[in-house]
Amino acid sequence: MIGIYDYTVWLTYGSLLSAMLGILVCLHGVGHPFIGIFFLMICGLCDAFDGKVARHKKDRTKMAQAYGIQIDSLSDLVAFGVLPGCIGFAMIRVSPRFQEAPVLHGNGEEGMILYPILFGLIVLFYVLAALIRLAYFNVTEEERADKEGGVRKIYTGLPVTSASLIFPTVLLIQFATDRDTTILYFVALLVTGFLFISKIHIRKPALRGILTMIAIGVVEFGLLLFLWLYFRGR
């Protein structure tokens, strides 16, 4: 079989599988966005360690290193590009504000048809921005590695993996305030997409920063799980 299957790529493969499960849950007729968001956070956890696990193997060939970079970006596009968009459409489906909104029939509220179109355009832009950010990173990282070597210290544009913390926060706000945050979620998609392709410079977090983000993610995961189960039981 073609491909690489040793432990250096297991977390990346796991992230992709988690993303696909999240997408399938969100697109299913009874799929819920709050289940999809848990799969997004699992993707973020896998991504936090996949690079360190891969670099732990000292005898990796150049082909194996290049393969790891490529599958990491391909997996990230699905996990942090496509999955957040699917979560957004799942939110529309379960939102009291939009689930009764007319799409094909006006019934005096023809303007509501603009929401699905507008939200769809935002998702398309967000996924495209994630694709551009990942492709740009791959090209510039290859050039930088040839000239400087070592590990990158500064990112240009917001890393797409930040989606694993941004969007769970929006859903956590919904539980905390008991208000529909569907529109806020799509605003977050739009803003995050612009940040992906912006020229802002972000310092790559050291181990302490990575552990802090993981801790934030674990807290968010626990709070979302608790609140989701609590409200389901009411």
**Global Rg:** 19 Å
| Apparent shape | globular
- The percentage helix is over 70%
Secondary-structure element series: HHHHEHHEH
- Indicate the structural class: mainly alpha
Contiguous helical run count: 7
Kindly estimate the percentage of residues that lie in beta strands according to DSSP: under 5%
Average pLDDT, to the nearest integer?
A: 83
Q: Please give the order of strands in the largest beta sheet.
A: 1-2
Largest sheet: 2 strands, antiparallel
Q: Report the span from N to C terminus.
A: 51 Å
Structure description:
The chain is mainly alpha-helical and 234 residues long. Helices cover 71% and strands 3% of the residues. It has helices at 10-27, 33-56, 62-94, 114-147, 163-177, 182-196, 207-233; strands at 154-156, 201-203. A two-stranded antiparallel ribbon has the order 1-2. Helix 1 (10-27) packs parallel to helix 3 (62-94) and helix 5 (163-177) runs parallel beside helix 7. The longest helix is centred in the middle third of the chain and has 34 residues, at 114-147. The N and C termini lie far apart (51 Å). The model is unreliable at 103-111 (pLDDT under 50).
